[in-house]
Amino acid sequence: MDVFGNYARYYNLLYRDKDYAGEVEFIHQLLRTYASQTQSILELGCGTGTHALLLAKQGYSVHGVDLSAEMLQQASERLSQLPQELASKLVYSQGDIRTIRLDQQFDAIVSLFHVFSYQTTNQDLQATFATVNAHLKPGGVLIFDCWYGPAVLSDRPTVRIKRLEDKEISITRIAEPVMHPNENLVNVNYQVFIKDKHNGAVEELQETHTMRYLFKPEVDLLFKASQLELIASHEWMTKSEPGFNTWGVYFVGRG
Fold first, then answer.
1. With the C-alpha atoms ordered 93, 78, 3, 237, is the resulting torsion angle positive or negative?
2. Full residue range of the structural domain in which residue 167 is found
3. How confident is the model at residue 5 (pLDDT cuts 50, 70, 90)?
4. Which of 29, 74, 132, 139 supports an S-S bond with 48, CB 3.0-4.6 Å?
5. Does the model's pTM come out above 0.70?
6. Residue-wise over 176-197: b if at least 16 C-beta within 10 A, else e?
């Protein structure tokens, strides 16, 4: 996931249309349903800290973990500008979610924006679940979303172009997917053009995001192997039954 080093500078602009507030409200409702006493949250793969900040505004204490120092720098810069009462609810640590150990346990663990799909091998997934086991309090819940296998195979990824701009830069991003059906993987090859509006200079980045699509039976096995109980799985943000057109699915497990 070193690709996120270059990615961090443009991350917030690329995803400024993402409904972070709606997603955090959705997580809040899930926590009220499945773990109503939750006060502390560990977020695995916190990125630039937008979800974590909004969760803190809901009253939770959040410890965010991410591999990217660049993304965590943005999260920390934002943290320094917050009121002390809110800032005191947020902590960030750099680390690999497969191996990090914080010597602390939490009421809930969340991992959003398909972070679990970036764990591309069985060993990666097992290691991530071991991290969950090490940090989840008895009776606590794990919530994560991922790419859902039935939809990926029936509604296959296609070439997509995304264009965005702000006062300083304009971005054109071309995404070209390559599927690897025997590994349950999709390589999403990005070509990103960043134009400086002040001098007209254009920078080009090339990066590949390798994504693992998951199926409910294998997720169930991962939960059982980690002595967690799978208690819910639905379409992300709707709670509908997943199907062949459901690219994003969330899973909830209890320790």
1. positive
2. 151-211
3. very low
4. 74
5. yes
6. ebeeeeeebbbbeebebebbee
